[in-house]
Amino acid sequence: MKSTQELRKNLQAFKYEGRERPFGYFYFQRWPSIFLTKFAIKHNLTPNQITMAGIILGVIGSIFMFFPLPFKIAGAILLYLNILSDKVDGEVARWRIQNNLGEVYLRGVFLDELNHLIIPPLSILMITMGIIHTFPYDKTFLTLMGTLAALSLPFLRINHSLGQLILIKKYIKHPELFAPLPMKGEKDPILSIKNKHSLIRRLFFIIHNIQDFFIIVLLFSIAFIGELILPIFRPSLLSGLLLVALGFLFPLIVLENSIKGFFSIEYKVRDLKEKL
């Protein structure tokens, strides 16, 4: 068995070196995940077993959001374990590949995508259902905002894969039906704008951080703990206001991503095609 540092170098380094990552990505996700990965390797757990366990934890954690505050806090812990499992399954898969310990199946990737598409929106919906009866303001409005926040999350996830989907499903089959892709060297106009205005780019990066599931769980955990220990906050006040804020923010990010995707899809498909 390799040391923790060796495992971190071999299984994690390429995931964060030279990349912009959301707040807490290394210290709260990759740093603890390697210890769970080491445990999984020692006990010969497969990536698919880890992914399934993570999905089960995510479903249970989401259901806990329907119940009183102590359950909500416990649910947040289970959702955090779901997030860690999403890191561990990939690290174990890379370990098995590097050490010729068996094949890694695409069904594991399928399970992983299901996890990302199901657990975040499910948790938001259960939070909405769990606080609606104690929220001190308009409950119909809260339900609308919670539903918008939940429905936005799968769209945010799918948006990242639309380039690959269009390339495989449409372009590769009949490239002659489409206008020529931009020439190599032509810059994506959206990236050019982002690189030209570094302050705007940084601001949007911070805003987009909020859609990261770890950040969502962290923010609701803070709200739940605040409501539990500080009598000044009425039941569900902090979590309800946070839910309303996300109900405004996430659809706006979906709209922004859709506009950016419309203007840059040819460049994305070109770059993906060159990597094949």
From TrEMBL:
The keyword Membrane applies. GO terms for biological process: phospholipid biosynthetic process. InterPro entries: CDP-OH_P_trans, CDP-OH_PTrfase_TM_dom. One of its GO terms (cellular component) is membrane. The chain crosses the membrane at residues 55-81, 117-135, 203-225, 237-255. One of its GO terms (molecular function) is phosphotransferase activity, for other substituted phosphate groups. It comes from Candidatus Giovannonibacteria bacterium GW2011_GWF2_42_19. Keywords: Membrane, Transmembrane, Transmembrane helix. This is CDP-alcohol phosphatidyltransferase.
